[in-house]
Give the backbone structure.
Amino acid sequence: MALPHADLLDVINVNPLGPNLVDAFSTSLIKTERIQLLHLVLPQRQDQPEHHVDFESVIHCLEGQVEVVMPGGTRTLRPGTLVVLPPKQRHSLRARTDCAVLVTLLLDRGDAAHGGGAGARTLQDEGKDTPRSS
């Protein structure tokens, strides 16, 4: 069952989760035909496999430390830093600590490539109610 995303003009909370980070889960915060915001929570040493999206994307570290690994080199992100990836840039993510990142995807009719984040959990999860918007 699909869970609701935030709506346009909703205020979405992406403040650091602090000690709640270890129990948090990844969510798709909002998705329209043109944009998707993903709040990815990665436990230390959990890697996201290599992939790409068709358009520019932004990976913004909210807390912890994550590496964006690309064929041309690695970018280390810490809280408050981000990297903008060009279209079709192959990359993976390596969580060096428990971390949370905000990923902004540009979409074409709801698709970023390979489903545009399809299958990501949304604002709530079964039995877990972590506020993401107000």
Confidence is low (pLDDT under 50) at residues 115-134. The beta strands are 27-31, 35-42, 47-51, 57-63, 66-70, 73-77, 82-85, 91-95, 99-106.
